[in-house]
Amino acid sequence: MDTDNITIDTLRHDFNSPASLNYRKWRHIKDVVTRYLMALGGISVIFAIVLIAFYLLYVVIPMFKSAEIERIAAYSVPGGSNSDTLFYAMEEQREVGLRVTDQGQAIFFSTANGEIREIFDLPIPAGTAITTIANGDFTQRMIGLGLSDGSALLFQHNYKVTFPEDVRLITPEIYYPFGNETIPLNVLGDPIEHLSIQYDGEQATLLAHGTDANIKLLNLTKEESMLSDEIEILRENSLITLDTVSVVSLRADIEQRELYVADETGNIYYYDISNKTNPRLVQKVTAVDAGISITAIEFLAGGISLLVGDASGQIAQWFPVRDAENNYTLQKIRSFNKQKSAITAIAPEYSRKGFVAIDESGEMGIYHTTAHRTVLLEQIDNHALNAISVAPRVNAALVENENKEVQFWHLHNEHPEISWQSIWGKVWYESRDKPEYIWQSSSASSDFEPKFSLTPLAYGTFKAAFYAMMFAIPLAILGAMFTAYFMAPKMRQVVKPTIEIMEALPTVILGFLAGLWLAPFVELHLPGMFIMMLLVPLSILLAAVAWEFVPGNVRNMVAEGWEAALLIPVIIIAVIISVHVSSPIENMFFGGNMPLWLSREMGITYDQRNSMVVGFAMGFAVIPTIFSISEDAIYSVPKHLTTGSLALGATSWQTMVRVVLLTASPGIFSAIMIGLGRAVGETMIVVMATGNTAIMDMSIFEGFRAMSANIAVEMPETEVDSTHYRILFLGALVLFAVTFFLNTIAEIVRQRLRNKYSSL
């Protein structure tokens, strides 16, 4: 037998055999399936990202929609047109309205059709006429009537809700908290021309103006007897003398501490009435232009801001501002100039900083003060509008025109607080002395003004990323350079996986350690931290210089590329020395307390959980990402480039700087941008190690609040579909857009660097 032929026949393979054809067929199927699965995976990732973006937009867009109004019904004034309307109000469910007339009747009616539910005849003394009306805080539902005999009558309108046969029944009631007798105010018996009242459940303040230049102040306080359940009413009287008799309006604030008096010439007198027996004039300001009169004046919700409407159609917001001497002065903060006729009435919202205004031309405007926004302006009638009331939930309005026709309007105005100015610009908030960037989404006070500025949150986000990258970039890239190019292969096989494993450490653990251990440690050894930043690099340099003087036979005992291991004890000793000398240096130069010294001597506030702590902790979290990608990029530089450079006489360091880094620059840049994206989106470390104070200060000793941390902290407690809820989603959308922008720029730069250095 010919063994050569057998060998050749054995090695020969028939590629057209059924088995080979079947093998190639299945391999082709696997290739096709794999290709399509890879494509499907990529498309799925893109689809998921786009879907996230569209969902964020879906939640955010409703905030920027304009208000909508719809007329539900129109009817003649309930109770007949033989009397004039003094006041309108609605209960919370907007089913029952109240009309108070100049004939002394409180008429409750159905807002849907004007059908009368109940009529109460108020106890007005015979022969006495109603000359004016005043209402206090809307939440107290207190109304005061000024009478022609110089007295006043106080009453509340209340609503009892029952559910007979599972159907809601609203029963209106009239209650007299100080009795149904009139309260004398003007000892001369002259008619009360103007009246202001406020009531907080325990005390009431009444201010009345007649025909002279005096305002009578009466404070009524309920005091329960210690021995019985009887309630005694204490009275305090005082007299405010004006320099004018042409008063057009009086308004006392909800806290019953301030009084505003407007006259016919457009002046407003600002009084401090906190001491009821000794009122004090604080300021007199001219609120309107010359020749223009004040036509409407109301408090904004909370009783801090005063809304002043005039004959030109302008509405201005005023409130007291504290100056450098801690004195309050009334200042005009912002104005709205949209309406073209004299403002006839202003109806503030019950719980938001918005209001509705009507004018003589039949226009109705919806405004929001914080956002400085005209939400809606619409012509709703061809006749002058005289009176308006909005429902407590601001979802309905009652409007009466000069023909005594009542219109019932549905209002849809969910997010008036949002505007470009309120989100990104400086806003002058109530009780602040200047415009500011503030995030404050909740408060225990009912007069709270939501502050939804995303600027301090965006500032905090980039501040966190800045300090984290300052700490991470030098260590990660220099470490990657040494590991990939100078370190011994066996040592690299230990170091690189160890650093990459660090990336798997949960950030909540890093945040926990940073907040509970690192932050107190840094505060206790603050001088040592700065000494450490100088001593550690200096020790490394000195160790490198000293290594050059070590005898050759000793240096040869350390294998090439393992020299870095000798730096471990050097670094440990430098850290220990820095910590141990911290207290003596602090006692010697900083009075034993460097944080307190910074505050007293330098005016620098020190927060225990500050940017330095976040820089250390977040930088520790970002280092593995930047290191791993950079090290791979440097290690992947073709060997012929480095050997060629060395062969031409370049040193290892020259080769690294002028050849390796340039070639690996696309990968290094990608590593930095990915690390930056990680830092921008980091949540748990920022939540636990910053103090979460939404301030704008670049100081390394101050805390901050990042956008991601804000979302994590506040999202669980916000009401779904509220403005707060949607503004948090807007923050998420901003983070998404920033990350997308950074990644796009990074990819463009990386491709250009790759094209530029690919020819090396």
Walk me through what this model shows:
The protein is α+β, with helices and mostly antiparallel strands. It has a domain at 458-519 and 608-757: Orthogonal Bundle (MetI-like fold). Strand 7 (142-147) and strand 8 (151-162) form a beta hairpin. The chain is elongated, with a radius of gyration of 38 Å. The mean pLDDT is 89.
Write down the overall mean pLDDT.
Answer: 89
Shape assignment: elongated
Strand fraction equals 25-35%
What is the CA-atom radius of gyration, in angstroms? Answer: 38 Å
Low-pLDDT stretches: none
Q: What is the highest CATH level, the class of the domain at 458-519 and 608-757?
A: Mainly Alpha
The number of helical elements comes to 17
Bin the helical content: 25-40%
| CATH domain fold name of the domain at 458-519 and 608-757 | MetI-like fold
Helix/strand structural class:
alpha+beta
What is the CA-CA span between the terminal residues? 59 Å
Q: Can you summarize the main beta sheet? A: 5 strands, antiparallel
What is the CATH-assigned architecture of the domain at 458-519 and 608-757? Orthogonal Bundle
User: At the fourth CATH level, what is the homologous superfamily of the domain at 458-519 and 608-757?
Assistant: MetI-like
- Counted beta strands: 31
List the SSEs and their pairings.
Layout: H1 3-11, H2 18-60, E1 68-76, E2 85-90, E3 96-101, E4 105-110, E5 116-121, E6 130-135, E7 142-147, E8 151-162, E9 169-175, E10 183-184, E11 194-199, E12 203-209, E13 214-224, E14 231-241, E15 247-252, E16 258-263, E17 267-272, E18 280-286, E19 294-299, E20 306-310, E21 315-322, E22 328-336, E23 343-348, E24 354-359, E25 363-368, E26 373-379, E27 385-390, E28 396-401, E29 405-412, H3 420-424, E30 439-440, E31 451-452, H4 455-486, H5 489-502, H6 507-524, H7 526-548, H8 552-555, H9 567-580, H10 582-589, H11 594-602, H12 611-635, H13 639-647, H14 652-681, H15 684-689, H16 707-714, H17 723-757
Antiparallel strand pairs: 1-29, 2-3, 3-4, 4-5, 6-7, 7-8, 8-9, 8-10, 11-12, 12-13, 13-14, 15-16, 16-17, 17-18, 19-20, 20-21, 21-22, 23-24, 24-25, 25-26, 27-28, 28-29, 30-31
